[in-house]
């Protein structure tokens, strides 16, 4: 007998540069608020536009707070029968950096709080879980965490999965992207011909995914598609081969055709290589009915490993509110053949395709529906 249970997002919480909670996040997106700040501290004699969380609390405190918020809004008394799945590309690197800058030495850095599983370790210090696993696949980390949650629920392995996407701003990542010459000195403008680059940001996104709807606002994780184009260490295939394959696989998993997709939450980082590859893939795949397309990273920045989970929350809110975001800062379209969302508007949305693409050509597309 084949087990094929459905997976639903029943509760979620977030914090990012776009808002201290998910409602503020969505309001910032809809009102096209200025959420990216100019920073001069990371790179000497250089201004960078970054997405910083505005809070006096530590990243760990915020992480626990958001997990508690999801638990409080759930039908669970605790997380003891819940599987924890974390997606992160930074892990505990910022903790190690702070210790190093304080001591001017590596001697007091605790390896326990350096690796990718640092996020899971912090959470498990506060809550008991049935088991846990951590993903680190660069910018698809928490998208893969959402996908994995859907898979283990659909196979009847777990009933409750807590997905956490979390990445903090660290010198390692900011300087790394600066070395690639892809950072912008102003808020990014994905898909615009005059784009300058991306904005590295930080975020925490927590979702409780379960095998039953807990309320009328529950959103289904309908399908997940993966691919690996293995074209280049950091750049995607210029013809969008891997991106297109991931989207096709998500459609196959959801058992729907491309004409059912109403909106695409694009990866849209604001770099030439990323934008052009994704847009070419979208224009090739969606030839007849062209869904609305926008990137929300001009508001949220690119929160790296946390982006997939954060955009799962954004997709959930779009489905719940039936409001489509626009492309902030898009003035001169670079590639034709795509139905760019030009204004924030109410629209009938049944299915959303959300893309996450990463270094090494690893790609994840997720379909959400109501």
UniProtKB/TrEMBL annotation:
<dbReference type="GO" id="GO:0006633">
    <property type="term" value="P:fatty acid biosynthetic process"/>
</dbReference>
<dbReference type="GO" id="GO:0005829">
    <property type="term" value="C:cytosol"/>
</dbReference>
<dbReference type="InterPro" id="IPR014030">
    <property type="entry name" value="Ketoacyl_synth_N"/>
</dbReference>
<dbReference type="InterPro" id="IPR000794">
    <property type="entry name" value="Beta-ketoacyl_synthase"/>
</dbReference>
<dbReference type="InterPro" id="IPR016039">
    <property type="entry name" value="Thiolase-like"/>
</dbReference>
<protein>
    <submittedName>
        <fullName>Beta-ketoacyl synthase</fullName>
    </submittedName>
</protein>
<dbReference type="InterPro" id="IPR014031">
    <property type="entry name" value="Ketoacyl_synth_C"/>
</dbReference>
<dbReference type="Pfam" id="PF00109">
    <property type="entry name" value="ketoacyl-synt"/>
</dbReference>
<keyword id="KW-0808">Transferase</keyword>
<feature type="domain" description="Ketosynthase family 3 (KS3)">
    <location>
        <begin position="1"/>
        <end position="370"/>
    </location>
</feature>
<dbReference type="GO" id="GO:0004315">
    <property type="term" value="F:3-oxoacyl-[acyl-carrier-protein] synthase activity"/>
</dbReference>
<dbReference type="InterPro" id="IPR020841">
    <property type="entry name" value="PKS_Beta-ketoAc_synthase_dom"/>
</dbReference>
<dbReference type="Pfam" id="PF02801">
    <property type="entry name" value="Ketoacyl-synt_C"/>
</dbReference>
<comment type="similarity">
    <text>Belongs to the thiolase-like superfamily. Beta-ketoacyl-ACP synthases family.</text>
</comment>
């Amino acid at each position: 007998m084949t087990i094929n249970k459905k997976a639903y997002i029943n509760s979620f919480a977030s914090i990012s540069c776009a808002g201290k909670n998910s409602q503020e996040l969505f309001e910032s997106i809809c009102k096209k608020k200025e959420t990216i700040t100019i920073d001069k501290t990371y790179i000497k004699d250089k201004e960078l536009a970054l997405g910083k969380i505005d809070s006096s609390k530590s990243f760990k405190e915020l992480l626990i707070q958001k997990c508690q918020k999801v638990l409080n809004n759930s039908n669970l008394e605790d997380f003891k029968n819940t599987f924890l799945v974390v997606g992160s590309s930074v892990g505990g690197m910022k903790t190690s950096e702070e210790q190093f800058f304080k001591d001017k030495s590596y001697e007091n850095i605790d390896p326990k709080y350096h690796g990718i599983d640092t996020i899971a370790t912090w959470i498990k210090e506060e809550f008991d879980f049935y088991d846990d696993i951590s993903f680190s696949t660069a910018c698809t980390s928490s998208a893969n965490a959402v996908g994995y949650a859907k898979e283990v629920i659909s196979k009847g392995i777990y009933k409750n999965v807590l997905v956490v996407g979390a990445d903090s701003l660290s010198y390692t990542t900011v300087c790394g992207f600066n070395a690639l010459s892809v950072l912008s000195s102003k808020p990014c403008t994905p898909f615009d011909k005059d784009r300058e680059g991306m904005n590295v940001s930080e975020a925490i996104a927590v979702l409780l995914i379960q095998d039953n709807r807990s309320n009328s606002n529950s959103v289904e994780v309908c399908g997940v598609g993966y691919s690996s184009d293995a074209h280049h260490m950091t750049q995607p295939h210029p013809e969008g081969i891997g991106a297109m394959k991931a989207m096709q696989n998500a459609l196959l998993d959801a058992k729907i055709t491309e004409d059912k997709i109403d909106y695409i939450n694009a990866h849209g980082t604001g770099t030439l290589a990323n934008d052009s590859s994704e847009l070419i893939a979208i224009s090739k795949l969606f030839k007849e009915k062209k869904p609305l397309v926008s990137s929300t990273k001009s508001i949220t920045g690119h929160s790296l490993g946390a982006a997939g989970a954060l955009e799962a929350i954004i997709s959930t809110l779009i489905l719940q509110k039936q409001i489509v975001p626009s492309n902030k800062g898009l003035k001169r379209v670079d590639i034709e053949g795509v139905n760019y969302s030009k204004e924030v508007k109410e629209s009938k949305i049944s299915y959303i395709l959300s893309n996450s693409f990463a270094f090494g050509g690893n790609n994840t597309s997720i379909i959400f529906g109501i």
